[in-house]
Amino acid sequence: MKSLSASAAPHASAPSCGAPDAFSRGLAALAHPARVEILRYLAGVDYCCCKDVVQRLNLAQSTVSQHLKVLLDAGLVRMSPQGQRSRYAVDVAALRTLCEAVGALATECAVRADEQGREMCRGDH
Amino acid sequence: MKSLSASAAPHASAPSCGAPDAFSRGLAALAHPARVEILRYLAGVDYCCCKDVVQRLNLAQSTVSQHLKVLLDAGLVRMSPQGQRSRYAVDVAALRTLCEAVGALATECAVRADEQGREMCRGDH
DNA sequence: ATCGTTCATCGTCTATCGGCGATGAACGAT
DNA sequence: ATCGTTCATCGCCGATAGACGATGAACGAT
């Protein structure tokens, strides 16, 4: 009953909460400076193997590989094995989609807040 | 808050990257379904105390308080103590700013990828 | 066949996250 | 003064993230 974490809610299923959706995974992937740096680096080079990122970021190769895997799972980069290397490339469309999702959330919040923003200062309920 | 660049601590022995900037904190705050739900709920009501969110989300009060604190630290919500309650409200401007930061990252990646996307054929396409 | 390179994965470690209950402070009402 | 309510914080716990080194597979070159 205590171990819910993402599956079993104590009482009833939580409202739209509890699933690691694409939105959450995408944002979580972006919520790390190293991964943002990887993305920007990937966009700036024509082809990119893991080694290049390692030299760029001054991190261990295994660490970089992990970060790339996170970005891959989030759908923000694509990978095509090429010989003994791995060609990584930014999925610009996915990045845009994620950006639009954030924008949609911001817009929704703005609209809903504006709909009744004037009476926010009543002080009672 | 235009500093998107991850400073990428040069030394690898550091446990973390050492630069939890506003961008990372904001995205990390959004990267949890419960917190997104809190944001949307906050935007939809004129007045909101912690208790309301607790009933809404079916989470323990302490858990909700933690989530609110995360959102607060990320600057996405504002809080004003009001009597024994705490009035929480979405900071729409901050949300927009964060959204624009994501957009800037997406645009930068798109531009840089487009600048040489056509000539990325070094050997094969 | 052998070697060097590249990369993904495994194991380990520490720090943090995310959940909870319990506690105490602050405040309004009785 | 006392009680009830609300909230933030603490301690605890399991799970995850993020770092590393080591290992082995895949591949090109010798």
TrEMBL record, chains A, B:
UniProt xrefs under Gene3D superfamilies: Winged helix-like DNA-binding domain superfamily/Winged helix DNA-binding domain
CDD domains from the UniProt entry: HTH_ARSR
Keywords: DNA-binding, Transcription, Transcription regulation
Coiled-coil ranges (or none): none
Segments forming domain HTH arsR-type: 15-110
Domain of life: Bacteria
A Pfam family it matches: HTH_5
InterPro entries: ArsR-like_HTH, HTH_ArsR_DNA-bd_dom, HTH_MetalResp_TranReg, WH-like_DNA-bd_sf, WH_DNA-bd_sf
NCBIfam families referenced in this protein's UniProt entry, alphabetically: HTH_metalloreg
Protein name (record): ArsR/SmtB family transcription factor
Organism from which the protein derives: Chelativorans intermedius
